[in-house]
Structures are given as C-alpha cells and as structure tokens.
Backbone:
C-alpha cells in the first residue's frame, strides 16, 4: 500500500497534539502543587485518570474494529466516529471538566480538546462541542478568578482558530485519501494495460504468422496440388505413380498447414465472426451492468480480416463499458457490395473528439486513448476507414469499414 506524501504532515500534527496535551496537563498539576491549594491530591489523581483515558485511544480503535489508526489521525483514535470513540471523548471531557474545576490552569487544555472534538465527533456535532467547551472554559476561569477580557476573548479566539485548522485538516485528509485511491487505480490500470498489451502483441504475432503461412506455404501447396492433379490426368505408367504420391503428399501438407493456421487464429472465430460477436456481447453483458444488442450477419472474409474486426469490436466495447457511463451498447455487422461494416454505438456521455488525437503512430493519444489508437492502427493495416461520431452527452458511435479481401483456400 502506497502512503500519501502528506503522511509526514499528519504525523507531525499528531505528535504535536500529544506534546501539547502532556505539557498543559503537567503545567496544571504542577501549578496546584506550587500554590498548595489543598486539592493537589485530587488534581493529581484526576490528571492521571485523564492521561490514562487519553492514552487508551488505541484500545478504542481496536474495539471499533480497525486495529490500527488511520493515516492522519490526530489522537490515535482512528475510528473516533464509532460508538466507542464517542464514549471515549465523553469520558475525556468529563475528566477535563473536573480537572478544570479543581485547577483553573487546566482550562488552557481546552485548545487541544478543540482538535479532538473536530476529529472525533462527526459533522456539526464537533462544532457544537467546541462551543460548549469554550463556554465552560470561560465560566470556569471567571469563577476561579474573575471575568476578564483576556479570559473571555482567549478561549473564543482559540475556538475559532481550532475550527479553521480542523476544517483544513479534514480537507487534507480527504485529499490524501483521494490521492491514495487514485494512485491505487493508476497502478491497477497500468498493470491491466501491460497485460493487455502483451496479449495484443501475442495475438498480433499469431495473426501475422497465420497470414504469412497462408500467403506463402499454403498457397504454394495449393498450387502444387492443382498442378499435380492436372499432370496426373495426362500421365501413365511409373510416372503416374510418382505424381499420385506427390499429389497425396501435397494434399496432406496442405491439410496440416491449414490446421496450423486455424490453431494460430483466435479460437472465438472457429464458428465465424457473427457467432463470436454474439458470444462476446453475452460475456460482457453478464460481467458488467450493460445491455448489449447484436445484429450480425454472416460474412465471408479471410481469417485475418475477421480477426481484425473481432479485436476492433472488443476494443470499442471495452471503451464503451469503461468510459461511456451508459447502460446500452448496440453492435451491428453487415456485408455491403465492396466492404464489411462494423458499428458499435453506446448511449453514454460521449466525449470531445478534438481532445482525442487523430491517430498517433508513436504512442497514445493526448487523452491516453490507447483503445482508439489500436483501433485506428488495425483499420489502417487493412486499408479501411474509421468514423467516430460523438457529441458530449449524446453517446458515441464507432463505424469501421474494411474492403473485401480474397477468400483463401
């Protein structure tokens, strides 16, 4: 788990608060011994009880079920908004109130108490607790000595400062949490992207090998088989036996080559492109909260073009699911006179096309749209056309048109 770079700030605030509480507590106890008020034993006992309660914050965290304090905790009571945390702050407040009543110097401890209230009590409850503690501190100081301007203004100013610092502290906590979540998401995305790139690279290499074998070895064997068949019709005697043997060997090698090509092509396309698109839609619909409609006609295309269209559909569908914030995707496949058209449309939020590069061949587009870049590259590889129709708030339609290729043997 990667921690926020604000963690040292939170640690400094936490230890600063601990030091302030301990210092003011020692001052209040020491002052009662110096003035020899006759209540020094009660002050000492109450101070020790206050310190014990304050130090029990980790036990409060454990009872609340978190086990350890969160990053940025001020007192160590990381789950202070839980029921044990509320009882903890109530007990601490009562002990502080008694200590203040016994020794007026303990009223200065109201300042660190302000931060505890802001951290422990959720919402407006923390502000209400600060107001009540401020009134109590002013009254306690006034009854012990007399009501002075400093004795009234001091706690009020301290309360205001504590409120501002507490709000700033909460804002820092939210920012730290958001940064950690964003960093975790980026790491997961980077890992998924690397895995996807490896898979796409392996699939691209397999498709290239299949095309190369088809265009060279398979075509050559097919030609040899046709020539030997023709020669067999015009041959006699011993030559006919050799020609027949050569034709059978070519036929066997051609069958083996076609099997290798089939093994190198995506298994989803074994039954054709249209069924593969329907299976893809069902898998993604079951896995995500999306309704995916497919209207796919049976098309006659070489395996390389079928593979490209299938991968393009995968990429466009993945983009729609991850980024469109929509609920429905429609996939259509149709064969025209001179081309095959694949269309993927969603009902999402769309995007601004000007923010997406027109196809960078050196890497990702300005918006980081690896998916669109991969789609463009596949379309350009087969001399096809790509159209992206989108308006922010009105969905996106990706249309790919590939020209017919020659159907191989």
Residues:
């Amino acid at each position: 788990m990667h921690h926020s770079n604000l963690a040292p700030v939170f640690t400094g605030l936490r230890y600063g608060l601990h030091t302030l509480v301990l210092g003011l507590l020692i001052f209040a106890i020491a002052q009662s011994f110096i003035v020899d008020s006759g209540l020094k034993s009660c002050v000492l006992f109450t101070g020790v009880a206050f310190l014990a309660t304050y130090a029990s914050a980790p036990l409060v965290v454990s009872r609340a079920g978190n086990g350890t304090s969160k990053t940025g905790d001020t007192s160590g009571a990381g789950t202070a908004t839980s029921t044990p945390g509320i009882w903890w702050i109530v007990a601490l407040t009562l002990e502080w109130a008694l200590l203040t009543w016994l020794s007026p110097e303990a009223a200065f401890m109201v300042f660190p108490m302000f931060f505890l209230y802001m951290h422990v009590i959720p919402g407006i409850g923390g502000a209400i607790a600060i107001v009540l503690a401020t009134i109590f501190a002013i009254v306690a100081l006034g009854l012990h000595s007399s009501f002075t301007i400093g004795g009234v203004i001091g706690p009020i100013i301290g309360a205001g400062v504590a409120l501002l610092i507490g709000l700033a502290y909460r804002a820092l906590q939210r920012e730290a949490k958001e940064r950690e979540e964003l960093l975790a998401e980026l790491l997961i995305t980077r890992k998924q992207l690397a895995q996807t790139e490896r898979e796409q690279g392996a699939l691209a290499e397999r498709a290239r090998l299949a095309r190369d074998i088809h265009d060279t070895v398979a075509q050559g064997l097919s030609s040899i088989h046709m020539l030997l068949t023709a020669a067999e019709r015009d041959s006699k005697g011993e030559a006919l036996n050799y020609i027949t043997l050569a034709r059978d060997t070519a036929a066997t090698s051609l069958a083996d080559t076609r099997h290798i090509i089939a093994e190198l092509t995506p298994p989803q396309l074994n039954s054709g492109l249209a069924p593969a698109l329907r299976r893809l839609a069902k898998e993604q619909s079951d896995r995500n909260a999306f309704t995916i409609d497919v209207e796919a006609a049976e098309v006659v295309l070489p395996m390389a073009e079928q593979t490209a269209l299938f991968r393009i559909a995968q990429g466009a569908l993945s983009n729609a699911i991850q980024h469109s914030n929509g609920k429905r995707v429609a996939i259509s496949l149709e064969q025209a006179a001179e081309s095959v058209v694949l269309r993927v449309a969603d009902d999402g939020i769309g995007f601004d096309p000007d923010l997406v590069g027109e196809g960078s061949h050196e890497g990702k587009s300005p918006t980081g749209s690896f998916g669109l870049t991969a789609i463009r590259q596949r379309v350009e590889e087969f001399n096809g056309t790509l159209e992206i129709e989108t308006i922010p708030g009105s969905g996106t339609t990706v249309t790919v048109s590939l020209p017919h290729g020659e159907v191989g043997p």
Notes: Residues 356 and 367 are 6 Å apart (CA to CA). The longest helix spans residues 149-233. The longest strand covers residues 328-335. The mean pLDDT is 74.
